[in-house]
Structures
1.
Amino acid sequence: MDLKELLRKGRGQLLEFMPQPDAEALAETLVAFANADGGTILVGLSTTGMLLEEVEPEHLEAVLLRAQGMCRPPVKTEWQALETPSGTAVAISVPRSPELHSLFDGRVLLRSGEKNRPLSGEEIRHLASAKGAGEYELEAVPGATLDDFDQGIIAEYAAKRRLRGPRGEQLSEQELLLDSGAINAEGKPTVAGLLLFGRNPQRMIPHSDAVLVRFAGTTPTNRDGLPGYTRREEIRGALCQIIDKLWNIIWEEMRHETVIHGLEREERPEYPPAAVREAIVNAVAHRDYRITGRRIEVRMFDDRLEIISPGGLPGHITLDNIVEEHFSRNPRIVRGLFYWGFIEELGLGIDRMIDEMLQAGHPRPQFEATPFSFKVILRNVRERPASKWEKVLNERQIKALEYLQEHDRITNREYHDLCPHVTPETLRLDLADMVEKGILLRIGDKKGAYYILK
């Protein structure tokens, strides 16, 4: 475990600092990490890496045992001592769990950024449903053998993982495949393994390919009612190949214009490249591979780009919390794509997509979700550079601003009507944040309070 790399990333979705062992606080973080995508708890260290209290292994084991007793069911963990110049700290590793965990008092927590957030009843039901569905990506593929892996792809992945993974990591190919979830304990290739490293994954997982269609106009049909496309490509291969092929075709089909800035010429593409790549990677990483008969679709129109992936939003994720919350349907695939370099930082893809579009003067990406699909729409119209507030506000706060453009005021109740699936406390913090930023003024107190544009 590379302590310097952990400290560089800092406290967040996958890392927590605990200055001294505390059973109750530890239990809360164990549950939150296990219900999300796992994580690491550094005990005895500050966020800067300073040793605050030397941790005795025997004492930690006793505290960890008490914390496990507060979890329902107990959370699996591994821990190791970390030697620092000032003494010993401890790193506790918590894997993502296929089970739903709660605390002894009934609370269900989920890691959300830097916080362990309690879930509402509806959110618990959604998360329990996702956990109950199991982890399809770890299922063995009938008839698949190690010969179905592409040695060239594995070698390329191993080289990139050495650059982005734990410093000094030395894994044999067998250990690498097992750690990546590409094979199970019996050495059989899994769904994740074939998708990441397969020579021809579509032979056994036929719906794992993608299709790109370039339409001539803004609708799928021409004037005669016939399909109006000028190009149609079916993309096959391992996931890294699908991402690269989709990107290359979109880049070929994308319009480019030249902009003169003083004496310099700048080529400006139709869409921000980073936003397009994030949308592609998001579709590949988070689609539901259990759904057969449907594949990833990319539709290019004259005025927009649509990326559609099979499967609704995973776990407790909704359109209202998609920016702030993170939950992976396929954590091993996501982790693999992170090591490939397709994902810069876990959980920030949607944020980056929005930011890139706004920075380029485009409208915010549009998200549409059904129980069986998720669609991202990028529009190529250039409006105006994003205001400074649009760059620092979340989707809910933008809704509040839009509401205030048409109304003189907004109350807590009216804000809740705009975002019905968000907890009152989150909405209260949203409004308080906008007051602190100098966007809104709070008028009145308690139940009679309302907010106006400053």
2.
Amino acid sequence: MTLLLVSHDMELMTIASTIHVLCFGEIIAGGAFDAVREDPRVREAYLGA
């Protein structure tokens, strides 16, 4: 079974086995939550870091 969940709540994303991060409609990262959370493109796009 596949479930598509769209959210900006990062705590909610911890329940997913695979996540994809979009920025202006383009996938900038994908994979396990821990790896995506540390991706520099994700950090820049969403955390300004």
